Every structure is written in C-alpha cells, then in structure tokens.
Amino acid sequence: MTTLEIKGDWNITKGKLKQKWAKLTDDDLQYTEGKFDELLGRIQKRTGETREAVEKAIKEYNDSCGCK
Fold this sequence. Notes:
Elements: H1 3-7, H2 10-20, H3 36-47, H4 51-65
Helix pairs in contact: 2-4
C-alpha cells in the first residue's frame, strides 16, 4: 500500500477506522505525509492488531469509499 492510496479522502477512512476500533483517537489517526509507518504503529499499539490487519482495514475502507 502506498501513501497515495490512503491519502485520498482520509476523513472518511478515519471515521470508519474509529468505528472499527473505538479506542482510537483523532491524535492516533493524525496522518502526515511520509509518516505512514508511524500511523500504523500508533494504531497497532492502541488496538493490539497486527500491521497486516491494520493495513488491510485501511485499504478496505479506502476502496469502499472510492478513495485512491
């Protein structure tokens, strides 16, 4: 997954991630270009999910909203 794939409409994806993992905060999901690995790490730490599960969820939500 590239940063361009998740950059699209981040607010929609962010909302869906918060629905899936209610423990996430806006600070956890603050996306800064070039900091994708840091974002994944914050989500992993907060949710206990694997990197692959987090990447898959982000990709699914981006695809479902038509974000690219």
